[in-house]
Amino acid sequence: MSKQSQQKPTSTDQNGVSVIQIQAHSSTSNSTGATAGLQQVPQLVPVSPGGGGKATPPSKMKKTIADKDSDEYRQRRERNNLAVKKSRMRSKQKALDTQQRVNELKEENERLEAKIKLLSKELSVLKDLFLEHAHNLADNVQPPTAAITAGDLCNNNNSGSNNGSQ
Amino acid sequence: MSKQSQQKPTSTDQNGVSVIQIQAHSSTSNSTGATAGLQQVPQLVPVSPGGGGKATPPSKMKKTIADKDSDEYRQRRERNNLAVKKSRMRSKQKALDTQQRVNELKEENERLEAKIKLLSKELSVLKDLFLEHAHNLADNVQPPTAAITAGDLCNNNNSGSNNGSQ
DNA sequence: GGGCATTGCGCAATTC
DNA sequence: TGAATTGCGCAATGCC
Q1: How far apart are CA A104 and CA B14, in angstroms?
Q2: Which of A67, A155, B100, B102 has a Cα-to-Cα distance from B68 of 20 to 30 A?
Q3: Hey, where are the domains in chain A?
Q4: Key word 4Fe-4S present in the record (chains A, B) (predicted)?
């Protein structure tokens, strides 16, 4: 129905642009999404020194304004608006995903750390056992077959220092 | 090329408010870059159904239009624009930080996993040593003090199976 | 050069 | 009452 954009370019002077925009909007008494639709009026490019000075630049601006009411323009705008919306949705989703990932990684980290703790404890127990046994051997008899000595166990560096091997 | 046809779902409708805006600005060239300075034309508040039928709300619209060129309005806008910019910068920074955090956590994860691997290996070696020793003992002599048996070592489940604990 | 995707920005409504 | 957020449209720009 009523196509409202039938406005003429309405002037376009050197410094500063004059644009007339007519807004005809439906209220549609929206309840939830009350985001009012609004239009924007462009300003071409921030060119044109207002302080009047030299001559008018090559002024590339010809239609720029004129095709505001063009059908094609409107279509392009609509398409872009759609694209923008899409892009923003994606961006937002990505941010959410990233946050989610942080949480997951944090959980995983805790799990791993718990496991490390467990393994360390196991290791420690085993070493103690070993040492104890070694002492017993030293106290009572001489190694029957010579298998384990305390030195074999104590040079393990599990204090986080990474060896260059492999 | 896809769907666009002639639909204009949002904005641009009938009945509503008409706003005329005249632009004559020498736009102080924006900050960085050449982001064109543009103005927007508002739409007032979607109030008062032009169709006029029944209950016309207590027309709340007072100036709304008039104060577009008000000094105070301009100041408010400027302040808000600043706030918006700030907010967006923060938001962006936060997103960046989150991403960074993901990377850090990933690294940490790898480190932890490597450590687990190392510990597991150590444990495995110790256990083997233990078993060997136990065999030796069994072959040659009877346990002098009775300290270690194979059973003590073999019930450790470090085969990656996750126990249900927490 | 056309077309979608991104991005910076301003406006207005809403939240705090 | 004012700052902070948020949704949205416009235009410039990036990228096929």
Answers
A1: 50
A2: A67
A3: 68-140
A4: no
